[in-house]
Amino acid sequence: MIAEKMIPFVQNNSAIRTMFEEGNRLKKQYGADKVYDFSLGNPSVPAPDCVREAIVDLANNEDPVILHGYMNNAGFEDVRETIAQSLNRRFGTDFSAKNLIMTVGAASGLNVILKTVLNPGEEVIVFAPYFLEYGAYVKNYDGKLVEISPDTETFQPDLEELERKITANTRAVIVNSPHNPTGVIYSEDTIKALAAILEKKQKEYGSVIYLISDEPYRELAYDGAEVPYLTKYYKNTVVGYSYSKSLSLPGERIGYLVIPDDLEDSETVIAAAGIANRILGSVNAPSLMQKVIARCVDAEVDVAAYDKNRLALYNGLTACGFQCIKPQGAFYLFVKSPVADEKEFCEAGKKYNILMVPGSSFACPGYVRLAYCVSYETIINSLPEFKKLAAEFSLTEES
Amino acid sequence: MIAEKMIPFVQNNSAIRTMFEEGNRLKKQYGADKVYDFSLGNPSVPAPDCVREAIVDLANNEDPVILHGYMNNAGFEDVRETIAQSLNRRFGTDFSAKNLIMTVGAASGLNVILKTVLNPGEEVIVFAPYFLEYGAYVKNYDGKLVEISPDTETFQPDLEELERKITANTRAVIVNSPHNPTGVIYSEDTIKALAAILEKKQKEYGSVIYLISDEPYRELAYDGAEVPYLTKYYKNTVVGYSYSKSLSLPGERIGYLVIPDDLEDSETVIAAAGIANRILGSVNAPSLMQKVIARCVDAEVDVAAYDKNRLALYNGLTACGFQCIKPQGAFYLFVKSPVADEKEFCEAGKKYNILMVPGSSFACPGYVRLAYCVSYETIINSLPEFKKLAAEFSLTEES
Fold first, then answer.
1. How far is B261 from chain A, CA to nearest CA, in Å?
2. What sequence ranges are listed for the domain Aminotransferase class I/classII large (chains A, B) (predicted)?
3. Which residues of B touch A287 (CB under 8 A)?
4. Record: contact B68-A251, CB cut-off 8 A
5. pLDDT at B40 over 90
6. What was the pLDDT predicted at B20?
7. Residue-level pLDDT at B398
């Protein structure tokens, strides 16, 4: 009774639901504070105070007909201009309101740009490990997802394989830095090398290859790490941003696309993306939240809280003998499974009430993802359990 | 540089933009209060007070991590249960939380259900005149839109033509009552006859035909008119609702789908729709607004204000000699153009600073749509101008 394309999603979804329900069962049985749930990327740091203040002030003092009303499908002009100016100040870019389209979070923004540029059968390249939902987004427009194998040493993109896999049919490359699920940040050198390959291939094929930068974690960078702003390195870049993590507003579905003037045929792409935003059903990003964002444009997330979690979990796990790359950003740890089948490892974790996501959910089996956007207490309390888990797999403690 | 499917949309969109820009030009030239802009369906009645109160109270008193956080993709369970109970009280239905999926407005809800059930090449039937965007939604999933000709006497659906046009390939029928752009309400007899045809055709073809009820105007009914709740008449009904008009929140993008237990293979359709909501990029309906809706579930729109507008405009126009059906709901008047080419009539209207939308934008040329969700003053001040416009077309005043 459902569309054929939806059938595999429904089948796969029941596996996710089973995991979710098992987590709930454990929490009921042992108490929520005795279950170490590292499975969800839901920010644990509350939205900064300015969000509450802006909501209350706007509700009390703005004309509701405007505050909750329709605006240009791309979003309120003043909101877009405010964000553009903030980006220009921070990154030395040169955007204005017209380069921004407010979207229902980054997921919707990615759908909007893919609908805008992708023809059926065209290829979109992603670097494993990657957020598996990218595959669903590309299939929504009958595109073909092309995976680049993971470099499990550095988790930086394998640019040699990228160069080999770009064809005349490549329409876009999606990058995500700071990165889910590994926490790595793509360095400026990596970005420059990536841009050079794309430039070369565009010339070779006489094509346009869009670089789509999915960056909900931009603000979550540690130890002073810089996150290069990609439009400055490659003209045909589209940025998809979300306030889900930076302002802890994931449920509000608020973000934007940046489509720079430098992008080939920019005006047409902007017009088409505005239409795609409308006809995919979003119509526009939620109006009150747009205005809230504009008031909080320079608010900062409490990165220190996540950083404290990062160090505690990273140090705790490596001390037990687990191997993982030290994350530079986002709020995930991508840990090597001590056995080839990481699902077996995830199962073993449940005995200690530890919930982890298998790496095969990110096209990178043999690893597991831990989301450390939890309370510091959860992390500290989980460490003795991780120690037992390590012992079960005969890992050796660091001396 | 854009997808081929997007090209016709971009071309068509510039026509809409031209109209919009011309409206702005007139307002700049003559002053906004001297331009009679009947082109937009943006509610003029502000959101009821309970919306503001709920926003402020929730922002001040709820845990922001929950208030702005992720929830089940279908929406907060308590919100869905509250709405289900409200529907049950009002319409004698028997829904619970699981039958509701909160969506980013009705437009997103329609996309979600079409993605859920529609295979490429399958047919979706609509009754002209209709909201032209339905065509875009159906094309998003490579479906085929099938139009039923307008019955310009009553603007009720032509059920004979419907019966002839249903094929083995018909997957869904979209209805919209109270109706944009005519304001008619489909009577219970009409709905019963429609349901009987669908039942018969389902048997004939051994198929499932979904009746999709797009009902953002449900609450806007005048003179005590009843709007039948369609799930009670036909099992395979899916309801798409929006708070855009009933609570004057069009910019907030908040609505829901109802998928009843009676619907064929209901559980699978519900599961698939939840996934479609996620992978189309909405992920979930905006979280704060979900909670606001639950608090305002029994709030009522100020229908009296629209009713006053309706009578003033309807009586004023018919007195000048214009012909139109008296709307029973929504906030539109669908007026017969005094010349066959209604675009010529719209152009003539601009000389009197009257902005109207040509009926060809609703697949019904020869008519124009006037949205009377404007101030009462605008309507009163426009009437002398309509009189001049009528004179230009030699219409005879009612004696």
1. 14
2. 34-378
3. 251-253
4. yes
5. no
6. 76
7. 63
Within chain A, all domains assigned CATH 3.90.1150.10 are found at: 4-47+301-392
A104, B281: Cβ pair inside 8 Å? yes
Start-end of CATH 3.90.1150.10 domains in chain B: 4-45+302-392
- Give A304-349 as a DSSP string: HHHHHHHHHHHHHHHHHT--BPPPSBTTEEEEEPSSS-HHHHHHHH
A193-249 confidence digits (pLDDT tens): 999 999 999 999 999 999 999 999 999 999 999 999 999 999 999 999 999 999 999
| Chain A to chain B Cβ contacts (< 8 Å) | 248
Q: Kindly state the DSSP code that residue A231 receives in the 8-state scheme.
A: G
- Selecting from B110, B276, B289 the residue whose C-beta is nearest the C-beta of A6 gives B276
CB contact under 8 A, A251 and B286: yes
**Whole-number mean pLDDT of chain A?**
95
Domain with CATH 3.40.640.10 in chain B: 49-295
**What would the mean pLDDT of B99-117 be, rounded to a whole number?**
98
Q: Which of B2, B43, B64 sits opposite A117 (nearest CB)?
A: B2
- On whether the CB atoms of residues A48 and A296 are closer than 8 A, the answer is yes
Residue of A nearest to B120 (CA): A3
Q: Which CATH architecture has domain A4-47+301-392?
A: Alpha-Beta Complex (3.90)
Pick the CATH number of B49-295 from 3.40.640.10, 3.30.2350.10, 3.30.450.30, 3.40.50.1460: 3.40.640.10
Query: ipTM more than 0.85?
Result: yes
What is the DSSP code string of B69-94? S---TT--HHHHHHHHHHHHHHH---
Give the integer Cα–Cα distance in Å for B293 and B81: 12
pLDDT confidence of residue A19: 76
Nearest Cα residue in chain A from B104? A282
Of B51, B104, B208, the CB nearest to A282: B104
Return the bridge partners of B335, or none: B324, B368
Closest CA to B109 of B79, B74, B81, B146: B74
Walk along chain A (399 residues) in steps of 10 and give the mean pLDDT of each run.
94 75 86 90 92 98 96 95 98 98 98 98 98 96 98 96 98 98 97 98 98 97 97 98 96 98 97 96 97 95 94 97 97 97 96 95 96 96 97 81
Please indicate whether, in this complex, the C-beta atoms of A2 and B208 are within 8 angstroms of each other.
Answer: no
Q: Name the closest residue on chain A to residue B288, using Cα atoms.
A: A252
Contact, A130 vs A362, CB < 8 A?
yes
Point out the residue among B6, B42, B282 whose CB comes nearest to the CB of A108: B282
User: What is the tens place of the pLDDT at every residue in A120-135?
Assistant: 999 999 999 999 999 9
Residue A102: closest CA among A248, A292, A288, A258 = A258
| Chain B interface, best mutation among A37, A45, A280, by max B CB count within 10 A | A280
Percent of chain A with pLDDT over 90: 91
| Residues of chain B with C-beta less than 8 angstroms from the C-beta of A124 | none
CB contact under 8 A, A281 and B119: no
Q: How far apart are CA B13 and CA B19, in angstroms?
A: 10
**Max CA separation in chain A (angstroms):** 65
Instruction: Give the chain A residue whose CA is nearest to the CA of B278.
Output: A107
Contact A65 B46 (CB under 8 A): yes
Q: Residue B280: which of A3, A111, A116 has the nearest Cβ?
A: A111
Closest residue in A to B73 (Cα–Cα):
A251
Structure tokens at B372: 């009377």
Contact A172, A212 (CB under 8 A): yes
Q: Are strands A255-258 and A237-242 parallel, antiparallel or unpaired?
A: antiparallel
pLDDT at B42 (0 to 100): 86
Q: Which residue of A has its CA nearest to B254?
A: A286
For residue B399, the model assigns a pLDDT of: 52
